[in-house]
């Protein structure tokens, strides 16, 4: 990968320890710097009074919390936690529990290679902040700003049986892929790994245990787990089964764990079940507000997990279906999504049109819901949810066809540069990525495809494409995985942006939120920031230097191991008069490490040059001024209007 251009080199600022923030406006210091320092102090002193107060007084969702048993916590005698499954869920979960509590946490996996990677300096999963958390807890390196070395309380090991036996609480965090054979093939979750772990727990446990389902499982799995445990338990050993589903989104798993929207704990409504739930509440309440810890019944907890993903994916399919109408009518999908998202009943999350959703969970979970509906004799419900997945496939095909049609209906011997291969930014994960389908489609059209992604591993891209694409000759002869965007785009006829990585963007630096005294004036002055995720109010654009300054200071704090919480981008004290508009960025994200130079890309491409913006992350006007023809998801085809292609 090429280094940053000096113009955009924010990394130099990020390590400038001599930076002092006097140029930063006082308000920004209050917003970002003081909370960060407060956070550091709090961590030096243990949990602060403020935190305690928040825990006790946090405005709980009364409906739930009054019906829970979390108001009279019991101090748990439990001290050892075992997490079975060192994957995307288990390892970050274990690391954060170890980081935030004094529990001894053991993360186990039969896969020796994976465990070796977790014990190395090169962690097998990329998640922002995870290396710091693992280093602190696994190696006992300074946890916080004070430089004090802490006890190491996180172990990665292949000793599954020994670790289960030693633990008080065992989390099952193994994968539950979609079944590839037998009844429910292609839809139902394959629970074979959950069952194996359950049997192992029953076999080795010599004392009572709390078993926690962390993996995403179909409703009523806890019943099967309970049955297996009871049928195979050693004499006198009792188990309680809880459901505590994960709600981590990749790329922000650590942030999600440190500051979750909610922690759901499902238990049986028996005295033993409620007591077990209390023990788990006790673990989480060491860093999560009590009001965010919701205890509900086991089956609700299991279903809520699948339902949340299905509803999120459904929103993306809604907006993607609308994007097709926008392209035909001249409506802009960003404007439509914005207009709908302002209705608080709809909200503005998951309304960004794209080439289709990917990732390991959405498709799998919806299909599992489809299967569940069918087995419950509810074919209409099954069809309803199946439609969400169908629209997702349609979106990938639609975008492919648009590329082909704009390139004069043939891609044969044309070079197509694909920028981005992961299913979303800030992760190295390519599972179910729309890029797999699209690259396969381009290859089958006879194109030469050059792929560049900042994080995806070359080997993994090849493996996944080999699975998806039957044409091995095309894969061998016409596919290139490149180390940088310039290489991929050199001599290309078209660039297709499939992942919203910041480094691909050419949009002016975004804005931070500001306060305005007059909400009506603010509403009136609202303008669309072209092609950006959101509208931003006029007059809220901050100088680039200000953003750099804040970012630099936060970077310096982080480099000194001061844990900087995702800053709340609010301006003044909450509750003060005036309104605020939140733009979904954090200062740390505001200044990307570096961005590709589209002038250089243009210089190397064959003419006419096309950009297909599958994520609406580019400033199309700027690209057009460079001579690109731009086609964007959910926007009428400019090429059609201008050149009749
Ligand atoms: C998702 C859920 O968001 C998590 O709450 C859940 O815990 C997780 O699945 C899981 O089951 O483990 P994740 O798959 O990591 O998290 O990623 P998302 O951020 O939800 O994105 C999923 C896909 O939807 C990506 O391909 C993304 O690009 C796409 N997307 C997302 C859109 O196309 N538009 C949007 O507005 C949002």
Automatic annotation (TrEMBL):
It is an enzyme of class 1 (oxidoreductase). It catalyses: UDP-alpha-D-glucose + 2 NAD(+) + H2O = UDP-alpha-D-glucuronate + 2 NADH + 3 H(+). InterPro entries: 6-PGluconate_DH-like_C_sf (IPR008927), NAD(P)-bd_dom_sf (IPR036291), UDP-Glc/GDP-Man (IPR017476), UDP-Glc/GDP-Man_DH_C (IPR014027), UDP-Glc/GDP-Man_DH_C_sf (IPR036220), UDP-Glc/GDP-Man_DH_dimer (IPR014026), UDP-Glc/GDP-Man_DH_N (IPR001732), UDPglc_DH_bac (IPR028357). Coiled coil: none annotated. Residues 417-524 form the UDP-glucose/GDP-mannose dehydrogenase C-terminal domain. The keyword Oxidoreductase applies. The keyword Oxidoreductase applies. Gene3D superfamilies: Cytochrome c1, transmembrane anchor, C-terminal, NAD(P)-binding Rossmann-like Domain. Its EC number is 1.1.1.22. SMART domains: UDPG_MGDP_dh_C. Pathway: Nucleotide-sugar biosynthesis; UDP-alpha-D-glucuronate biosynthesis; UDP-alpha-D-glucuronate from UDP-alpha-D-glucose: step 1/1. Keywords: NAD, Oxidoreductase. Belongs to the UDP-glucose/GDP-mannose dehydrogenase family. This is UDP-glucose 6-dehydrogenase.
């Amino acid at each position: 990968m090429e280094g940053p251009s000096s113009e955009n080199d924010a990394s130099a600022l990020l390590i400038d320890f001599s930076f002092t923030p006097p140029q930063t406006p006082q308000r920004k210091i209050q917003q970002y710097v003081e909370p960060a320092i407060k956070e550091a102090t709090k961590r030096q002193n243990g949990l602060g009074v403020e935190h305690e107060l928040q825990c006790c007084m946090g405005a709980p969702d009364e409906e739930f919390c009054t019906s829970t048993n979390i108001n009279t916590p019991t101090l748990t005698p439990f001290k050892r936690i075992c997490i079975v499954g060192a994957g995307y869920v288990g390892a970050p979960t274990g690391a954060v529990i170890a980081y935030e509590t004094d529990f001894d946490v053991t993360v186990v996996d039969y896969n020796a290679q994976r465990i070796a990677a977790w014990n190395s300096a090169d962690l097998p999963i990329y998640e922002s902040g995870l290396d710091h958390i693992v280093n602190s807890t696994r190696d006992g390196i300074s946890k916080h700003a004070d430089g004090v070395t802490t006890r190491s309380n996180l172990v990665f090991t292949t000793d599954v049986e020994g670790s289960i036996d030693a633990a008080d609480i065992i989390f099952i965090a193994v994968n539950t892929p979609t079944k590839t054979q037998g009844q429910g093939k292609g839809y139902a979750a394959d629970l074979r790994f959950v069952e194996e772990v359950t049997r192992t727990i029953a076999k080795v446990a010599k004392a009572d245990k709390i078993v926690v389902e962390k993996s995403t499982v179909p409703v009523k799995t806890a019943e099967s787990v309970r049955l297996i445990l009871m049928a195979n338990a050693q004499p006198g050993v009792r188990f309680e089964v809880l459901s505590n589903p994960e709600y981590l989104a990749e790329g922000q798993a650590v942030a999600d764990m440190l500051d979750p929207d909610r922690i759901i704990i499902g238990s049986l409504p028996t005295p033993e079940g409620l007591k077990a739930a209390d023990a788990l509440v006790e673990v989480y309440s060491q860093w999560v507000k009590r009001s965010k810890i919701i205890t509900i019944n086991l089956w609700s907890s299991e279903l809520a997990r699948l339902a949340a993903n299905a509803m999120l994916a459904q929103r993306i399919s809604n907006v993607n279906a609308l994007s097709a109408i926008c392209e035909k009518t001249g409506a802009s999908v960003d404007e439509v999504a914005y207009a709908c998202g302002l209705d608080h009943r709809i909200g503005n999350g998951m309304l960004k049109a794209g080439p289709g959703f990917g990732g390991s969970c959405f498709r799998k979970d919806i299909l599992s819901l489809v299967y569940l509906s069918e087995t419950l004799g509810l074919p209409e419900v099954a069809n309803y949810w199946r439609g969400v997945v169908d629209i997702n496939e349609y979106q990938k095909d639609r975008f492919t066809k648009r590329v082909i049609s704009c390139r004069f209906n043939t891609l044969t011997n044309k070079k197509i540069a694909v920028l981005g291969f992961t299913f979303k930014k800030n992760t190295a994960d390519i599972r179910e990525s729309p890029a797999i389908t699209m690259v396969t489609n381009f290859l089958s059209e006879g194109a030469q495809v050059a792929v560049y992604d900042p994080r995806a591993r070359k080997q993994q891209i090849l493996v996944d494409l080999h699975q998806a694409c039957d044409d091995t000759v095309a894969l061998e002869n016409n596919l290139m995985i490149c180390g940088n965007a310039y290489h991929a785009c050199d001599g290309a006829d078209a660039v297709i942006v499939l992942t919203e990585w910041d480094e691909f963007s050419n949009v002016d630096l975004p804005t931070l939120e500001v306060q305005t005294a007059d909400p009506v004036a603010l509403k009136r002055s609202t303008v669309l920031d072209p092609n950006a995720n959101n509208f931003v109010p006029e007059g809220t654009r901050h100088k680039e230097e200000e953003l750099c300054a804040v970012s630099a200071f936060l970077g310096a704090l982080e480099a000194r191991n001061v844990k900087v919480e995702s800053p709340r981008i609010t301006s003044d004290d909450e509750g003060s008069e005036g309104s605020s508009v939140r733009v979904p960025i954090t200062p740390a994200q505001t200044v990307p490490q570096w961005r590709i130079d589209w002038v250089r890309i243009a210089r190397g491409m064959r003419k006419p040059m096309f950009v297909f913006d599958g994520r609406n992350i580019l400033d199309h006007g700027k690209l057009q001024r460079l001579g690109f023809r731009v086609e964007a998801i959910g926007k009428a085809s400019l090429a059609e209007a201008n050149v009749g292609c």
